[in-house]
Amino acid sequence: MLDARHLTALEALVGPAGLASDPAAYETPARYARGVAAAVARPATTAEVSAVVGYCAREGLAFVPQGANTGLVEGSTPDASGQQLVLSLDRLTAPMEIDAADRTATVGAGARLSALNAALEPHGLFLPIDLGADPSLGGMAATNTGGARFLRYGDMRRHVLGLEVVLPDAHGTVLTLSHGLRKDNAAIALRQLFVGGCGAFGVITKVTVEVHHRPRQTAAALLIPRDLDAVLPLLCAFEAEAGTMLTAFEGMSGAAMTRAIAHAPTLANPFAGGVPDYAVLVELTRSWAPRDGEASLDETLQQIAGRLLERDDAPLADALFGSTTKMWALRHSLSEGLRASGPVIGFDLSFRRRDLARFRAEATAMLAADFPDYALCDFGHIADGGVHFNLVGPDDADRRAALREAVLTLAVDGFSASFSGEHGLGRAVQTAYDRFTPRAVQDYSAAVAAVFGRGSASVRLASAASSPFSVQESR
């Protein structure tokens, strides 16, 4: 807890409404144990963020920027020391600036994705990053969020056209990085340091993003591949046949689907013959309305699947067609179904696409030999190489630590995978960062952070209480 002097000073900067009286919601992450905040400051403007950050820098106070607190790596909550201030950006929701002709939107960092898309809907536009949570736009930029439609639309880096950031120096310096221009080589593109920087270099307070026309046609199917080795050929075939209409290609293990269906009584089991070992949710979209004489998107999808079923080397064993909404409901229920079935060890891994099947086969063999009491319940974004490699099993700290070490060693050392595909950085992956991130990269990251005002000799994802700035900002 901060002493009275600091609390009085912070209240003078943000007003009585800017200090949270009940810190519980800001201390509790979406996953992992609750931390202890020294205090919670909730500035409502960029000027107030600047004042708080500058004060913390001058006084040597550690702080953790927090968006919507939906992140999964302990990147937006304080540790258990009670020495870290939470800098919540949830009040940075100034009126959105939507330019429909330019297809851009400028929003405060605390604005939620759902609020932005609701404001864009009357214009027929949306920000097409599909997630299982409702994050803040500042957190999405700071963690370079991807999501289920990365295949078609890319990640936040692809969409961020401009940022406003506050640097962690004694002045709380405010930088405006581009003005929403799609082409701007007038200076070094510093904003790219802050997109995916997880707050290491400063606090994002405003974001300008490119937005897209909403699809006018959508079709989806559940594909059952011949076997796991057929998943990549199936993806390549759909990319060749559907081109830019292919929006999503989401892999789901039978174990994950079974748990989701069991947990959600309203979630119908679409598989009449029983849940398969593996299935893929494929989605096609078009930005135009149906045209006379043109096959509907549902017909197009069925035709592609039919041709793949008839091939001599058919990668497809079966295909189920139906409600797009119901199919996505199954996909979005997977995480909740796993949490309801027992303690989960989650990995956010990213591979070259060609390595996905081989990693899964080797990991499955390792689990059977060394960790038979843990069930593999994976799913992921096959088209971009991302996999949420989830394991459900006993809540034994030593076993879980050994299992985490074994999986990460196989993935990173064995396949040159990333231990953080899209969730960003935080205390939950501190050990992996220390071990697998090259020392030179860590050192240069620290040097860049020092330039922006941290003045710390080393960058750690979870800062010590003595550090003036926590290298975290999460969704």
From TrEMBL:
The keyword Ion transport is assigned to this record: no
GO terms of biological process kind: respiratory electron transport chain
PROSITE patterns assigned: FAD_PCMH
InterPro entries hit by this protein: FAD-bd_oxidored_4_C, FAD-bd_PCMH, FAD-bd_PCMH-like_sf, FAD-bd_PCMH_sub1, FAD-bd_PCMH_sub2, FAD-linked_Oxase-like_C, FAD-oxidored/transferase_4, Oxid_FAD_bind_N
Signal peptide: none
Cofactor(s) listed in the protein's UniProt record: FAD
Keyword Flavoprotein: yes
Keyword field: FAD, Flavoprotein, Oxidoreductase
GO molecular function: FAD binding; oxidoreductase activity
Stretches assigned to the FAD-binding PCMH-type domain: 33-214
Protein name: FAD/FMN-dependent dehydrogenase
Organism the protein comes from: Caulobacter vibrioides OR37
